[in-house]
Amino acid sequence: MLVADYDIVFQEVPDETTLALNISDCPHHCPGCHSSYLWQPVGDVLTPEWLQRLIDRYPYITCVSIQGGDRDYHEVERVAQWVHMQGKKTCWYTGFAKLPEDLQMQGFDYIKVGPYIEALGGLKSKTTNQRFYRVTPEGLRDMTDVFWK
Ligand code: SF4
User: Fold this and answer.
1) Phi and psi at residue 100, in whole multiples of 5°?
2) What are the structural domains of the chain?
3) Which of 35, 63, 97, 105 has its CB surrounded by the most CB atoms within 10 Å?
4) Is 38 in the pocket of ligand 1 (CB under 6 A)?
5) Model confidence, pTM
């Protein structure tokens, strides 16, 4: 899995200071995508050592968000579980319309599901097809409406 770039963000995951990792080689190619540079396989290989250096550089982050990685979501699971072991929360932004049935949920605190459909808009649009969930022991809790306030 390759990380094209990263940023510290405050809105992608509500109430968290998030290290967002933009994973390249996105398979979805949504029309109107604002990040089409992520369609090509570019960037650094995401290893625990690489990620540990970033976490050490930004110790104040509370969450790591994996933005993409849909070609190898079992690797996304492994990264999320590793991040949990470092004491940080995790989020996955996936362009899948539905979560894979065999996805292991225990490493995730938040998940955003859904491709970008230009006519419906992103998470900040009330007409969006995308959903943002809190992962709880009881299942997924839809908190998409937090983005509309
Ligand atoms: S999933 Fe995201 S990065 Fe991939 S094409 Fe769609 S909008 Fe772009």
Assistant:
1) -60, 140
2) 2-148 (3.20.20.70)
3) 63
4) yes
5) 0.96
Ligand 1 site, residue 30, Cβ cutoff 6 A: yes
Paired tokens of 82:
């590793």
Distance 67 CA to ligand 1 centre (A): 9
Q: What are the pLDDT digits (tens) for 32-47?
A: 999 999 999 999 999 9
Indicate which residue's Cα is closest to atom 2 of ligand 1: 95
Q: Is 62 in the pocket of ligand 1 (CB under 6 A)?
A: no
* 140 CB within 6 A, ligand 1: no
CA nearest to 6, candidates 95, 67, 78? 67
The pLDDT score that the predictor gives to residue 95 is 97
**Nearest residue to 105 (alpha-carbon basis) of 64, 68, 134:** 134
- Reported as half-sphere exposure (CB side, CA atoms, 13 A), residue 108 has a value of 28
Residue with tokens 């968000």: 65
Contact (Cβ atoms closer than 8 angstroms) between residue 66 and residue 41 = no
Q: Which residues of the chain are modeled with pLDDT < 50?
A: none
pLDDT of residue 67: 98
pLDDT digits (tens, 9 = 90+) for 117-136: 999 999 999 999 999 999 99
